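Filed under: proteins

Residues; backbone shape codes:
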Amino acid sequence: QLSSLMEIAGELVLRLNTAGEILHVSKRTNDVFGHGSSMVGMKLFELVRLSDRHAIEASLRQAIASLEVTRVSVQMATRAVLRWFELQLSAYEGDDGIEVLVVGHDISGQQATEERLRHMATHDELTGLPNRSLLADRLRMAIAQSRRTERGFAVVALDLDGFKKVNDALGHPVGDALLRVAAVRLRETLRDVDTLARVGG
């Protein structure tokens, strides 16, 4: 009955001991990760992206200490690609002491949408360059660094001569294409530490 419940609980369902070792794996989890029965005995941390391991270890400790549901979002290496999962960790008293039930749901689509919205808020839609808001933030950082290091920095404002004539004579699609090409060429001439932004439009 427990195995049946584990199959419908989420895309990822595991039982762990307090050291984070996997005791049982749902069939759906095996299908997603492709490790087969070899997952038993592995540590949960081995499935998580290196930069997220501290978060998952802290969440496991918290779940065991509090005996309350602990949630954490991490990237995990599935059979195909790295995918985002929201994990719920619940500690309970098992036959051989404290065990932890981990139920995970794939939130990769949600994470991609949030990332896209964050990008749209700080970048020009047409050229993909930082917009006025992100430029203002970068300028504040440059000013702060300049005060610390007592080294100056440069701000250059560029305009495209005759751009209105291109729009009027050839249409906005051609003008948009010209802006995209200009953005690519300017980006290629700058260093990685420089910021190229589009503040018009």
Q: What stands out?
A: The longest strand covers residues 82-94. The first helix runs from residue 2 to 9.
